[in-house]
Amino acid sequence: MFRFEDTGYFYLLGILPVLVILFWWALRWKRRAIQRFGAPELVEKLMPGRSQWRAGIKLILSLFALAMLIIALANPQWGIKREKVKRKGIDIFLALDLSRSMMAQDLQPSRLARAQLFAGELLERLKGEQVGVIAFACNAQLQVPLTTDYSFASLFLNTANIDMVASQGTALAEAIQLAQQAFPEDNERHKALIILSDGEDHVGAASDKAAQALEDGIVVFTIGVGTPDGEFIPMAGVTGENYLRDATGNPVRSRLEAGILKDVANAGGGAYFDLSAGTDAVMAALTRRIDGIEKREYETRVFSEYESYFQYFAGLALLLLVAEFFIGYRKRSRILNV
Questions:
Q1: Of 106, 166, 176, 226, which has the fewest beta carbons less than 10 angstroms from its beta carbon?
Q2: How far apart are CA 205 and CA 155, in angstroms?
């Protein structure tokens, strides 16, 4: 199995577009300075050795080298030894709402961002359990099957966005039904489903599905993401204050539908939690309820040893930096003599 030892270093990749913007700004400033100096045609004749493309080549090599160094810091690894391990725990699916209403900003920076942050912290608390992830909007999709590879599940949670679902809407019942199908058949009563949503259910029948899930041994917990007052839904990719609008042209205000989520949790034998009450309080109350679920013993195969490959990426970064160093900003002399 391939993994990165520390995926947190990938946040450093955000430096790359910043460097590109700074390079573009410096290039623009230099061109304006040359224009102030004199006519561009005349200045070009005064600087016959200046190369317009070498600076760009040097930048590209530097960016690739920096990217390779960041990958090396994350330490790519490949599992080389597996062994059987007996554990006691429950099977848990996290169902994340990716409908457009989750982009509302009544919880900062947005409902979806807060849900992702909470889910990531919850994943750390659930280590020892088998965890999977379901994404849902108008329909539900199994994104991460039950696994103890928490880095894989965390990677999806960190990168989830509303563009991952084919059609918009919210169908809580679809998420519950998919979880029922995804749990292993040999596990009859050691399982839970945690739904993170604003509760806008456009299909209905979620409470009935939760009751059926409880009959199958699945305890359903719901976490409300949003506020009763709600907020308008911003349109992605649109500058300025523009929001999703209804047929009459008025902005659509999305509100937390706590009543629906409470009904689902009650029917599913679980509990409802309001994320606006505070992450720590919700986390403590939820984990207490999960710990109260009877655990089962299961056997799993895990990698106990990994081999690191960071040195290859570090070596490639060094080669790129050496190549960048030997590329000058001026044209070759033989070209100038032509």
A1: 166
A2: 31
What is the per-residue pLDDT across 38-81, written as a single tens digit (0 to 9) for each? 666 666 665 565 566 777 888 899 999 999 999 999 999 887 77
How far is 214 from 300, CA to CA, in rounded Å?
A: 26
Q: In angstroms, what CA-CA distances link 37 with 28, 31, 182?
A: 14, 10, 69
Longest dimension (CA), the chain: 86
Distance of CA 162 to the CA centre of its chain: 11
Positive or negative CA dihedral for 154, 159, 161, 164?
A: negative
How much helix, strand and coil, in percent to the nearest 5, is found in the chain?
Answer: 45, 25, 30
Sort 47 into a burial class: Cβ within 10 Å, 0-12 / 13-18 / 19+. Answer: exposed
Contact 186, 297 (CB under 8 A): no
**What are the φ/ψ torsions at residue 30 (nearest 5 degrees)?**
-65, -40
Dist. CA 256–CA 275, nearest whole Å: 11
pLDDT for residue 335: 43
Mean pLDDT of 268-282: 95
Give the tens place of pLDDT for each residue, 144-185. 999 888 888 988 898 899 888 766 667 899 999 999 999 988
69-128 pLDDT, tens digit each: 999 999 998 877 766 666 677 899 999 999 999 999 999 999 999 999 999 999 989 887
